[in-house]
UniProtKB/TrEMBL annotation:
This is Vint domain-containing protein. Residues 444-516 form the Vint domain. Keywords: Signal. It comes from the Bacteria. It comes from Myxococcus landrumensis. It holds the Pfam family Vint. The keyword Nucleotide-binding does not apply. Residues 1-17 form the signal peptide.
């Protein structure tokens, strides 16, 4: 990482020497507009000297009552917590003048907390629809990465990433990430992102120049405010790492991580394919059809210390003991599955618990005899278990594993704590310590007995079609079957019947060609639609739902060479005479269904947020 620029941030070395002179107007907004999403950099000169001092004191107070790696809702009946929230937003350039509804909502939340009689020194209780139950897909706000560059050769190379995700998205989300030393002295810019009609997957990255402090302990923190169908909320989370307070300790250096699972084991197509109710015969890296109520993934890997340090066996044993017993722990890392298109995510959990304990991870962790190599093995019966809230239709998911790593110096016994982050690909996450291949989950199909027309003119039941067969295609004489899937369906399927008496039973997400609308998922079909068939356009006279207990099947058609001669949405087959999409088309439209947004933000954004959005979009 290149050397960081000199920071004009109040509290840094540069500004402390000229504190009374830090009165110049704030630098340009440094705001990047991208439709719904705006990114920017905080500036301490937006606060007066008195406000800055109050902010620093309130921040210290907040960390005295909160626990690391534990997300909390701030209590606005507590003057210090309310003042901290307002100052944090003001650092990002948010004011009552340019964000009127945001500050109106903050004031209303303060009134609500006062009416509830919340006492200073406590936090607001968790909404039961939020993070309280681990079995559901839920809101997440986490510190995804926080390190001092222990896996990089550059000195003074700190990095932090926060992430927010909300099920189904939010009306508005503001989230930031800040890198300081443990006393709150800024070591880099406060970075922030705000998003309207989004909020499904929002990372915020920042960096820290560790040479700006004499301390050896550091902090990455994140504040978030969010408005959604569940109402207006906020949350705060931080993590501390490095040497113990008041002690200078040499930074350890870790080797490159070796990861054995999850990996791309089939086809070498740079894709980790996880099959849920459907199993692709040619490309299914992990078959979960035997675990219908959960997403269960194997994780296995190791890393070593290359510096004169040892992994802290006593601390790791304490992690194991505490997580196994359910003792509250605050520094054991996280393992999360995030639904990037649908929003929200799931923790790895230990049965039906209120809070995930990371017990599954730590019970599979071991040290080498020389305490130089740390390994984890969550395979077989100990595979990472994510509750059924994250078992979804075909879609991309993100896996996020942050491993807290306590070490001790081999000479002197000084302790140090850092972490490494293993994450799915994301260009907005600048420096994960390890990047998984893209992970997708699969769910799609046609009922057994559906007749697929082959290239030679014969028909075959879908369950007998296999890779290598050739099927008839309306746009090309024939296409090669590249893969097939088999599974079950737990929700009622869609039955259609046309005026010619032809019938087809398919899962609700399966795409079919409609004359006026193109490819349409079966769940959106209606009586009177003109659909394409082998005999030409035909009107639907029946669209109904039907429970089905049999097997369901799907195909992927078209070799790479064959698809070069095809247009968009042309990898289709004739199923009972209807033109239906294959698994590739299905994946495309499921993703579109979950990510499609009206280009006119104001058309879908609640009116209360219109002025805030318009004013944010005008900022340069």
């Amino acid at each position: 990482m290149s050397r960081m620029r000199r920071y004009l941030v109040m509290g840094s070395t540069a500004c402390l020497a000229m504190l009374s002179g830090c009165t110049s107007s704030p630098q340009g907004e440094q705001l990047t507009n991208a439709g719904r999403t705006m990114q920017g950099v905080g500036d301490a000169r937006r606060l007066s000297k008195a406000e800055w001092n109050a902010y620093r004191a309130d921040e210290g107070y907040l960390h005295s009552i909160a626990k690391p790696d534990t997300r909390v809702r701030l209590n606005f009946a507590d003057p210090a917590q309310y003042r901290f929230a307002v100052a944090r937003l003001k650092l990002a350039g948010k004011t009552p003048e340019n964000s009127p509804y945001l500050f109106q909502a903050l004031e209303q939340r303060q009134k609500d907390h006062l009416s509830q009689g919340l006492a200073a020194g406590s936090f607001a209780s968790e909404d039961p629809r939020g993070l309280a139950t681990s079995a559901e897909r839920k809101e997440m706000h986490l510190i995804e990465a926080a390190n001092a560059g222990e896996t990089t050769p550059e000195p003074n190379d700190g990095a932090g990433v926060a992430r927010s995700t909300f099920p189904g998205g939010s009306y508005y989300t503001y989230a930031d990430a800040n890198f300081t030393d443990a006393s709150g002295n800024p070591l880099g810019d406060l970075k922030f992102v705000e998003e309207y009609e989004g909020g499904k997957d929002l990372p915020i990255a920042t960096t820290g120049n560790l040479s700006l402090t004499t301390q050896g302990r550091y902090r990455v923190s994140s504040y978030k405010v969010e408005d959604s169908v569940e109402g207006f909320k906020d949350s705060y989370i931080f993590t501390d790492f490095g040497a113990p307070a008041g002690i200078t300790s040499t930074r350890p250096v870790f080797s490159q991580l070796l990861v054995y699972a999850p990996v791309d084991t089939v086809l070498n197509d740079n894709l980790i394919s996880v099959c849920l109710n459907r199993t692709w015969t040619q490309d299914c890296d992990y078959d979960l059809t035997g675990t219908p109520q959960a997403v269960k993934l194997p994780l296995k890997g190791q890393m070593s210390l290359t510096s004169e340090h040892l992994f802290d066996a006593a601390k790791i044993t304490q992690f194991k003991t505490d997580t196994n017993a359910g003792t509250p722990t605050y520094d054991v890392g996280h393992l999360k599955l995030i639904l990037t298109n649908a929003g929200g995510g799931c923790d790895v959990t230990d049965g039906n618990l209120i809070e995930a304990r990371m017990n599954q991870f730590w019970r599979g962790a071991t040290l080498s005899p020389d305490k130089k190599t740390f390994s984890w093995d969550l395979t077989g019966a100990n595979a990472a278990f994510f509750d059924d809230g994250c078992r979804q239709v075909q879609n991309e998911v993100k896996l996020s594993l942050r491993i807290v790593l306590p070490v001790v110096a081999s000479v002197g016994g000084q302790t140090y704590q850092s972490s490494v982050t293993l994450a799915s690909p994301d260009p907005r996450f600048p420096r994960p310590d390890y990047t998984f291949k893209k992970i997708t989950v699969t769910n799609s199909c046609l009922a057994a007995g559906t007749e697929i027309e082959l290239a030679e003119g014969q028909v075959a039941p879908v369950e007998s079609v296999k890779a290598g067969d050739r099927v008839r295609n309306p746009h090309k004489p024939s296409l090669t079957v590249m893969d097939t899937a088999v599974g079950t369906e737990s929700v009622p399927m869609v039955r259609i019947r046309n005026a010619a008496g032809k019938s087809l039973l398919m899962t609700e997400m399966h795409p079919i060609q409609v004359m006026a609308r193109g490819m349409v998922q079966a769940r959106h079909l209606k009586t009177g639609d003109l659909v394409m068939t082998q005999a030409g356009p035909s009107k639907l006279v029946e669209v109904s739902r039907e429970s089905y207990a049999g097997k369901v099947y799907n195909v992927k058609v078209g070799s790479d060479a064959e698809k070069l001669a095809l247009g968009a949405d042309q990898t289709v087959v004739y199923a009972n005479g209807f033109v239906v999409g294959d698994g590739q088309i299905q994946a495309k439209y499921e993703s579109i269904a979950m990510t499609q947004q009206n280009p006119n933000v104001l058309a879908t954004l609640p009116a209360k947020w219109h002025r805030d959005y318009v004013m944010s979009a005008k900022r340069k």
